[in-house]
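To: structure desk
From: M.T.
Subject: fold request, one chain
Message: Could you run this one when you get a chance? Sequence is below, nothing fancy, just the single chain.
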Amino acid sequence: MAFTNEQGRQEKDDLTYDRQDFWPTTSNKQVNFVQHIRSLLKSTGRAAMVVPDNVLFEGGAGETVRKMLMKNTELHTILQLPTGIFYAHGVKANVMFFDNKPAQKNLWTQEIWFYDYRTNVHHTLKKKPMRLEHLQDFIKCYNPENRHVRTETWNEKSLTDLDNLPEPEELAEEIIENIEAGLNSFREVLGALSASS
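Reply: Done. C-alpha cells follow.
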C-alpha cells in the first residue's frame, strides 16, 4: 500500500495493522491514523484532524473508512487548506472535524460543510506563513457557538475571483510544485510496476 510521507513523496509500506477496533486492515498509515484517533474518542468525543487529500478521495481502505466515519460519527466540516501548509510542496491538506456518536441504525452524517481556503490563496512556510488571522473568516463562518446555524457564503464568482489572484511568481511556484508532485507520483507508479514485473 502506498502513502504520502512528510516530504510529499509516495512510499510503499507492506506493514499492515490488524486491530479489532479498525474498520479495514490496511498498511496506509494516514488512514490508520484516522481510525486510531476515532477509536480513542469517547462516545461524545470531538476531533479535528489534518489529513492529505488522498485520505479524503482515494478508494479501497480510504473509502471504507470514510463510509464508516460518516456512519459512526458526525463528519460535519472539512476545511480545505492551501498546498504545502502541513506537508511538502504540492501536497494538499484538509482539516476534518467530526463528533463521535453512539451506534445507531442510520447514518450520523447527513451533511458535510466545506470551507475552501485553497482557491486563490498561497502561503509559504517562511515568507508568508499561515497565521490565526488568516482563519478568522473560517472561524466566523464555522460559528463555534452553534455550528448548526451557518450561513452559506459560496457563490460562483468566488471560484473565479480575478481581482484576488496571487502574484504571478506565486502562481508559477504553485504550478511547478504541482507538476513536481505529479512527476513524483508517476515515478512511484513506475517503480511499483517495475518491482511487480
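Reply (cont.): The chain has a mean pLDDT of 81. Let me know if you need anything else for the meeting.
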